[in-house]
């Protein structure tokens, strides 16, 4: 045993601290003092001389070190908040306010702003009342009412008199209608949740039974011979110079006899440079043997529907049996037609075969990850279940094959709404045509990477169905389809999933919930605020299991998007100005590395003297395309709602409502981040 091990332990273990500078220190050894250092037998006379001072010094060192560590944590938190505040200040200084369509949207914003100022006034009033002793728990609300009614002389000052009258107004006039509206929204919420649950159970049944559409015959049948009907492929585009090359290249590489395939590039661009680039690309593929033509409209009315309608009026279309549509950012696999067209053989009732979308930029940022959750549920659950059990779903506008006869019998493309794809699908279903959804056939495309592009896309997708519902309701009622199918289309397809969902999402969580904080006599149960939304988010995320870490951001972001969806729904239902707004979704031209390699391998033979395509050059070109000056937008409605929800969360602290406080706090922060455009890419 070494000599230093025999030294008697006295007064606790020494504390050795290395401190190079106040912000960088390390502790080599630190142990708590032993019991012998504090407990001495025999009373005060038995305490060694200087022992008390030594223990006090050690305890002081421990407290100082802990205080230093706490100060370091606080400094880090303060630094993070200062960085965030600085970023917000820069965004506000360089941002552009969301001021499009000042008509209807400004009225909507004015209502939110008035509600915000009222809530701030009420918060100040409630805080003053709280510090004057007017703080009651939820269980005391009835006692409060009886007390203020039966004891009018209990209030001694002017403020107390005003607050007691406010309580009476709350109890008698404000709480009953608010509670009634809350109960109605809760019922709608439960119905919509049951619909979502039934769809999930149907999807589970499909998975367990391995049900999927199977063509009756293969393309090449030994008895009937090969089946290669005439197919027309249309690529509508408008000022989409970022993606036209890859989509045209993918379509020109489809495996189908060249004599049985015609490709129409339907260019509605009003930019001369973009027109020239697309023409050159089409000419290049024509020189390499592709059966492809370029069409440009002089009168560009009707948006995409007008473009498709104009192309279908060409005389040579009568020679074709099927038409396939791909938007400008879609890149079908070479076997797309081989896997979709055979379903039409010997199935004369089939009008549409729809393929699933996949996304090349699904992991680009938080916004694309959250979009993936919604779209994965839409394809995996909604469209697959409806396709198998009902033979009906909304056409997605792209990556689908139509029987031209079905389009013609249904009235063709109409420009009356901004959702021409849903319009033609509804009319075809009313004429008895059946649809098939192929969940195992995918077509790559892009997700919007900026909140501005995503918001405009969602506005169009949620205002159009309400326009269509107004126009189609008489036709649905007069149609010859069964009563059950009419009920499904009216109550489930339109009302529940297109109208009720955005209505209760916005009304319940962005209006009623904050109001119940200021009118506590009306209440929302915790299971409505937390448990059912969490369960529904869990079900939504099941088709995209890799997205489970984003379940909380997804729940908050969906409630945040309810503002845009509710505004769009109201605009479409009442035919307001923004209902007919059509903005082409901004594309970035991203491609996966596999797509780039495929493009290099399948690039047409170059003319003499030109260089060979290089993968690194293509990647570098893609990188340079993103090095453009960008800015962010400031969304006033979202910022106003953020302040409203944060104000309501502050009010909930006075009544100690835990779950409600945390929900309002996090939801308010979510609105704040979206309002400052801190989610997704910035806008070019």
From TrEMBL:
Pfam families per the UniProt record, alphabetical: Glyco_trans_2_3
Glycosyltransferase 2-like domain boundaries: 323-531
InterPro entries in the record: Glyco_trans_2-like, Nucleotide-diphossugar_trans
Listed GO CC annotations: Golgi apparatus; Golgi membrane
GO biological process: one example: pollen tube development
Superkingdom, taxonomy of origin: Eukaryota
Keyword Ubl conjugation applies: no
Record-level Gene Ontology MF annotations: glycosyltransferase activity
Annotated localization: Golgi apparatus membrane
TM region(s), chain numbering: 108-131, 180-206, 490-518, 524-542, 659-679
Keyword set, alphabetical order: Cell wall biogenesis/degradation, Glycosyltransferase, Golgi apparatus, Membrane, Transferase, Transmembrane, Transmembrane helix
Record has rRNA-binding as a keyword: no
Membrane topology qualifier: Multi-pass membrane protein
Family to which this protein belongs: Belongs to the glycosyltransferase 2 family. Plant cellulose synthase-like C subfamily.
Protein name: Glycosyltransferase 2-like domain-containing protein
Originating species: Erythranthe guttata (Yellow monkey flower)
Lineage: Eukaryota, Viridiplantae, Streptophyta, Embryophyta, Tracheophyta
């Amino acid at each position: 045993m070494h000599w230093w091990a025999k030294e008697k332990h006295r007064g606790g273990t020494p504390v050795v601290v290395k401190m190079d500078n106040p912000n960088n220190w390390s502790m080599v050894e630190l142990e708590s003092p032993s019991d012998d250092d504090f407990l001495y037998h025999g009373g005060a006379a038995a305490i060694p001389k200087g022992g008390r001072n030594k223990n006090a010094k050690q305890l002081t060192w421990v407290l100082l070190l802990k205080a230093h560590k706490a100060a370091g944590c606080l400094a880090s938190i303060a630094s993070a908040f200062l960085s965030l505040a600085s970023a917000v200040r820069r965004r506000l200084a360089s941002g552009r306010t969301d001021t499009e369509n000042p008509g209807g949207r400004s009225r909507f914003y004015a209502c939110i702003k008035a509600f915000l100022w009222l809530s701030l006034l009420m918060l100040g009033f409630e805080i003053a009342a709280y510090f004057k002793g007017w703080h009651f728990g939820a269980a005391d609300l009835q006692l409060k009412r009886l007390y203020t009614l039966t004891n009018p002389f209990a209030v001694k000052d002017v403020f107390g008199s005003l607050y007691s009258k406010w309580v009476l107004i709350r109890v008698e006039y404000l709480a009953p209608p608010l509670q009634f509206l809350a109960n109605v929204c809760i019922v709608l919420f439960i119905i919509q949740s049951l619909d979502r649950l039934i769809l999930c159970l149907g999807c589970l049944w499909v998975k367990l039974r391995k049900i999927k559409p199977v063509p009756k015959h293969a393309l090449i049948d030994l008895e009937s011979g090969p089946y290669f009907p005439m197919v027309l492929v249309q690529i509508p585009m408008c000022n989409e110079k970022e993606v036209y090359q890859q989509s045209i290249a993918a379509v020109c590489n489809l495996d189908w006899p060249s004599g049985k395939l015609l490709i129409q590039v339907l260019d509605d661009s009003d930019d001369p440079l973009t027109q020239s680039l697309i023409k050159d690309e089409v000419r290049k593929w024509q020189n390499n043997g592709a059966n492809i033509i370029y069409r440009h409209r002089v009168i560009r009315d009707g948006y995409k529907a007008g473009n498709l309608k104009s192309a279908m009026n060409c005389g040579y279309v009568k020679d074709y049996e099927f038409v396939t549509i791909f938007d400008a950012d879609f890149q079908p696999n070479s076997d797309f037609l081989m896997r979709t067209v055979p379903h039409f053989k010997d199935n004369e009732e089939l009008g549409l075969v729809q393929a699933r979308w996949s996304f090349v930029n699904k992991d680009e940022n938080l916004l694309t990850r959250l979009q993936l959750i919604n779209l994965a549920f839409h394809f995996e659950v909604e469209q697959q279940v409806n396709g198998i059990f009902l033979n009906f779903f909304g056409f997605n506008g792209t990556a689908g094959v139509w029987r031209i006869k079905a389009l013609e019998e249904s009235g063709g493309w109409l420009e009356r709404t901004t959702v021409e794809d849903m319009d033609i699908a509804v009319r075809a279903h009313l004429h008895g045509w059946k649809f098939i959804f192929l969940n195992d056939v995918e077509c790559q495309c892009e997700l919007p990477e900026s909140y501005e592009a995503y918001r405009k896309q969602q506005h169009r997708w949620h205002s159009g169905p309400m326009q269509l519902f107004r126009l189609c309701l008489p036709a649905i009622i007069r149609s010859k389809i069964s009563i059950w199918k009419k009920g499904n289309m009216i109550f489930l397809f339109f009302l529940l999933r297109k109208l009720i969902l955005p209505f209760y999402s916005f009304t319940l969580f962005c209006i009623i919930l904050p109001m119940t904080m200021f009118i506590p006599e009306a209440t929302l149960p915790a299971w409505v605020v937390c448990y059912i939304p969490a369960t529904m988010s869990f079900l939504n995320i099941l088709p995209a299991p890799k997205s489970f870490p984003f379940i909380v951001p997804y729940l908050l972001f969906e409630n945040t998007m309810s503002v845009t969806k509710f505004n769009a729904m109201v605009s479409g239902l009442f035919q307001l100005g923004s209902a007919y707004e059509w903005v082409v979704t901004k594309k970035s031209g991203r491609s996966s590395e596999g797509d780039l390699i495929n493009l290099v391998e399948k690039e047409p033979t170059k003319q003499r003297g030109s260089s060979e395509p290089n993968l690194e050059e293509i990647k570098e070109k893609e990188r340079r395309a993103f090095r453009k000056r960008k800015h962010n937008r400031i969304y006033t409605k979202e910022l106003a709602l953020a302040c409203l929800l944060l104000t309501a969360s502050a009010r909930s602290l006075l009544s100690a409502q835990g779950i409600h406080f945390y929900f309002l706090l996090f939801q308010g922060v979510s609105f704040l981040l979206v309002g400052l455009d801190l989610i997704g890419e910035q806008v070019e």
